[in-house]
Amino acid sequence: MRLAILFALLLAAGCAQSAGAGGALAGERYRVVVSTDIGGTDPDDFQSMVHFLVYADLFDVEGLISSPYGPGRKEHILQVIDLYERDYANLKTYSARYPAPDALRAVTKQGALEGPGAAGFGKPTEGSRWIIECARRADPRPLYVLVWGGIEDLAQALHDDPGILPKLRVYFIGGPNKMWSVDAYHYIAVHHPKLWIIEANSTYRGWFVGGNQSGEWGNTAFVKTHIAGRGALGEFFATLLKGTIKMGDSPSVGYLLRGVPEDPSQPGWGGKFVRAWDGRRTVFDRLTTEGDTAEVFGVVEFALPVPAGMTPRQSARMIFDGRIPAVGAREGGLLRFRFSPRDAKVWPYVIRSDFPALD
Asked: With the CA atoms of 60, 63, 69 and 73 taken in that order, what torsion angle do they form, in degrees rounded to the nearest 10?
């Protein structure tokens, strides 16, 4: 069984050369919570955390949350803060507004350890409670939540306290993260459709693909020339990904540094965005063939009849591309499976179940 995914327009385009003159580098000060799967399946979150902390004097850092997917934990954020502490005295010579290391540790929280299942929400976490606490503060400024990994803690916070929604401004590094967090994403889209959210599914590629790669500007040469040997943070950065830049979550940081963050349609260092179009959710009431198509980065849902004789204790899941599980959720007489394709290709899938007729 296969499902072909068609290429769709990018949600954002890199446009640093024509970026507006606003942002944190122009003196605007933003309240920021970062939710990251640092320490998980991709070391680039470590790179982006180094990047963020080097600019931490320009932000009011209100939270650093460890989120799914993978083995990353709060301790991985604290590891980078320890390196920041070694550089802190030197950083203070450039700006008195760098936050103290202990102040950063105090706002570092553990989020969800795994996905909540098909509902898209589960139990409150230290991270989800912290998002609510920050959003509920009397500060009139909005709270920017930069989501570098799974979006589960944000979904949980909105479920537990929907009243925080008007205060939130979310920049979600989607793509592969949306693929692993599709149920939480679906919950937000259905139950909190008025959330201010940028869904950047491909922008991150502009930080390490293409551009001027000559001389010192190459992804590896830049690290050797401008990062390695520059303090504890620089030395650590140079050990990641064999000393090559990826920084896949840094578009969210760049978005606040230069541009007009309150207006996503304006160009900035984190992209220029268009309003998401309708029809990005495709529902199939049957198994598919290679003749069926859906939108890349959209939500694909299978709504299949529960087979006769299948008991509530029995379960089923779809495995996409041999590795990405979608657990079936019963809704009335249907089993629903959700998936978000990150690539334009044919996606093979199988159903695995303890009910023989489905397996």
From this structure: 120
> Of the candidates 246, 273, 300, which is a domain's last residue?
273
Token digits of residue 275: 């309003």
3-state secondary structure of 257: helix
| Domain identity same for 104 and 233 | yes
306 close to 336: Cβ distance less than 8 angstroms: no
For every residue of 142-169, DSSP letters joined together read -EEEEESS--HHHHHHHHH-GGGGGGEE
pLDDT 10s digit of each residue in the chain, 359 long? Answer: 444 433 333 333 344 445 667 999 999 999 999 999 998 777 899 999 999 999 999 999 999 999 977 777 899 999 999 999 999 999 999 999 999 999 999 999 999 998 788 899 999 999 999 999 999 999 999 999 999 999 999 999 999 999 999 999 999 999 999 999 999 999 999 999 999 999 999 988 988 888 888 999 999 999 999 999 999 999 999 999 999 999 999 999 999 999 999 999 999 999 999 998 887 899 999 999 989 999 999 999 999 999 999 999 999 999 999 888 888 889 889 999 999 999 999 999 999 999 998 88
Residue 173 falls inside a structural domain = yes
- Looking at the fold, whether 22 and 79 belong to one and the same domain comes out as yes
Preceding omega of 69 cis (within 30 degrees of 0)? yes
Residue-number span of the structural domain to which 54 is assigned: 12-273
Query: Whole-prediction pTM value?
Result: 0.92
Give yes or no: residues 218 and 320 share one domain.
Answer: no
Domain containing residue 257: CATH number: 3.90.245.10
Q: Which amino acid appears at position 222 of this protein?
A: F
CA dihedral 207, 145, 261, 19 (to 10 degrees): -10
